[in-house]
Design goal:
It is found in: Membrane. The chain is built from eleven helices and two strands; from the N terminus they run H-H-H-H-H-H-E-E-H-H-H-H-H. It has helices spanning about 5-25, 35-60, 60-90, 95-130, 130-150, 160-170, 195-220, 225-235, 240-245, 255-270, 280-300, and strands spanning about 185, 190. A hairpin with a 2-residue loop joins strand 1 and strand 2. It starts with a helix and ends in an 11-residue tail after the last helix. Helix 2 (about 35-60) packs antiparallel against helix 9, helix 4 (about 95-130) runs antiparallel to helix 8 and helix 5 packs antiparallel against helix 10. The chain has a two-stranded antiparallel sheet. It is mainly alpha-helical. The protein has a domain at about 35-155 and about 210-305.
């Protein structure tokens, strides 16, 4: 077995082990996640990503480390949009606070599988059809411009989620939550619980976000190693980040503008790559600067109370 194959096995087994320990050992039982605990776990996952980045530097060199860090920053920042939608979904379905951690755990497991599939298919297509890079570039510029001019009132309506509609047609669902169970049997008949429906909607929502995030990271590099690992580490910290920022996320009301600029930048980078290849260090600097300015603007120019989003 070569070093590359050994790495993939060890990496994926390690990630699954960490997630299992997180849910069943360190955070077992249904309890409300405190802000302090969420911040500690967020620091752990970010620290783990940075430690892995150092490993990449010594194993694959400076360029690979810069690409990983750029991809990680982009994926983590795009995840902020996911957090807003998770908040909306939990509010809409009135998911008890003590069950939200379990929902996000299984949502992330599904997201890891789906994104791995998207990445493999996307890279395979690009390697055989180079012109797809230009399609991705146009798509990212369009998405960035659309995000730039979108309104705060443009919300996702969970009730119109296609997964919810299909589930209600083919599966019996209980009217109330049955603890933290996804399925229960009543009078010999198997029922899904609303908690299972919420997991499916979280999964389908991530698919929608992956349509933006995967092309974005592919605009930085088509190296499977970089794309996959940066996605994994961004997703690992997503659950803790949700609980750490859920009370203050509304303060970052200008971050969408920063994300819109980043998406458009990566799109332009793809469109001009045949004529000019933007150095990785400049791309990384632009991403960090765009995010930093959007966060700074949110802090310097807070929205008035009656302008904030309602969840």
């Amino acid at each position: 077995m070569n070093n590359e194959a050994s790495f993939w096995i060890i990496f994926n087994v390690s990630i699954l082990t960490l997630l299992t320990l997180d849910l069943f050992v360190f955070n077992k039982g249904n309890k409300v996640v405190t802000t302090k605990s969420a911040l500690q776990w967020s620091a752990f996952w970010v620290g783990l990503a940075m430690a892995f980045n150092i490993f990449v530097y010594y194993w694959k060199g400076r360029e690979a480390a810069e690409l990983f860090f750029t991809g990680y920053i982009i994926e983590e920042s795009l995840s902020v949009d996911n957090l807003f939608v998770f908040m909306l979904i939990f509010s809409y379905f009135r998911v008890p606070s003590e069950y939200q951690r379990k929902v996000l755990f299984w949502g992330i497991i599904g997201a890891l599988v789906l994104r791995a599939l998207f990445i493999v298919v996307g890279i395979e297509l690009i390697e055989h059809f180079d012109w797809l890079l230009y399609i991705l570039g146009i798509f990212l510029v369009y998405t960035g411009v659309k995000m730039l001019f979108s309104s705060d009132d443009d919300e996702i309506d969970p009730e119109n989620n296609i997964i919810l509609k299909l589930t209600n047609k083919f599966i019996r669902v209980t009217k109330t939550y049955e603890g933290d169970k996804f399925f229960v049997r009543k009078e010999g008949i198997l029922y899904a619980t609303p908690l299972f429906i919420v997991v499916l909607i979280v999964e389908s929502t991530d698919v929608v976000f992956a349509v933006d995030s995967i092309p974005t990271i592919l605009g930085i590099t088509t190296d499977t190693f970089i794309v996959y690992t940066s996605n994994v580490f961004a997703l690992l910290g997503l659950r803790s980040l949700y609980f750490a920022l859920s009370s203050v996320m509304k303060l970052f009301h200008y971050i969408n503008y920063g994300l819109a600029v980043i998406l458009s930048f990566v799109g332009v980078k793809l469109l001009i790559h045949s004529w000019y290849e933007i150095p990785h260090k400049y791309a990384l600097s632009f991403v960090v600067l765009s995010l930093g300015l959007s966060v700074l603007a949110s802090w310097l120019f807070p929205k008035k109370e009656n302008e904030k989003l309602n969840f």
